[in-house]
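Comment on the following before class.
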Amino acid sequence: MAAQIDRREPAEVGAGSDEGCPATVDDGSLHFGTLPHSTRPRRNGRPVKAVEFNVTIPGYVLARSLGRFSDAFIYGRASQLRLAERTPPSMPGADWVRIEVVLCGICGSDLGNISYRSSPAMEPFGSFPAVLGHEILGRVVEVGPGVTHVEVGDRVVVDPMLHCEARGWGTGAWCRSCVAGKHATC
């Protein structure tokens, strides 16, 4: 995963582990529980595992109609959740870093998506298939040539907002929130 560097001071974070990871895999289906240590991600351009959610019309109809009777249509084998392999993207710029995910949170917006209860106001921010889990603690494994204040091995948290600066827009094109330094409301 590539992440742009933010100049805020890092908070102290405990040493992460894989224990308590929210999912296990059986034949490509996603099941909640503990992810075995043997399924750690691969790096250096090779595929990594990702919890992927894809919406199809039949899947949506099944989940909305039968999901009220059984969670299997929302979270189980009949759901539209899959463990997929994704090739990490190249770093988009000199001021970005690549991180290895140590811990990842599945939050309310992720649960709203997979249960088909998300607010229609969130629709413009979604694309499918979607990789769930945007609340991330990671370890830096590669730094771009323009990065001067983070080193390989540093623990970092990811700001999930793609604000004006992260998109590479010049300061003249920034929205009011970004000009005020409030990237989370971009």
